[in-house]
Amino acid sequence: MAKVFVITGPSGVGKGTLISKLLERVQGLELSISATTREPREGEVDGRDYHFLTPEEFDRRIAAEDFLEFATYSGNRYGTLRSEVRRRLEQGHSVVLEIEVQGARQVRAAMRESVQVFIAPPDPASLRHRLESRGTDSLEAIDSRLEVAEQELAAQDEFAHRVVNDELERAAGELEGIVRAELGVPLDSGAE
Description:
This protein has seven helices and nine strands. By secondary structure, it is α/β, with parallel strands linked by helices. The radius of gyration is 16 Å and the shape is globular.
């Protein structure tokens, strides 16, 4: 049976990297593409990385109740389109949502059966280092993201599963184990 997996945690914790490894290792999982009002970063493609929407279009989609969840983060809005999730589930594919804590709470309220995983850093200082090394944000944006991260870290006990991203391969293996257990797929089969 197809399931929705919500992967959340503070900005810079490595959610995207862990999800990439998860998608390589577990067949039948698909990443839901979020919508956002932020400008594309270099190399990002509309419809592949995000659905890039104008603020007006985002507002229209909110009014039409097109979003499963949406949140404002660092001055931009992000959301998961219901149609993205519904289409994949109807096709028998489990869906992975890479979203912020605020959105994860909304999904939990709307879909109690969703599997929620919090990705935590080994320590808060590692987040600053990761955000700075990405080179995609100004120092002001990094400081803003770190303020939000403090609040998100305080919420990690709300989540059924918690993975500390201290060592990439170990954390990826732990995340894979959680997903496989929820899907009833043994660890030693299906990995490619």
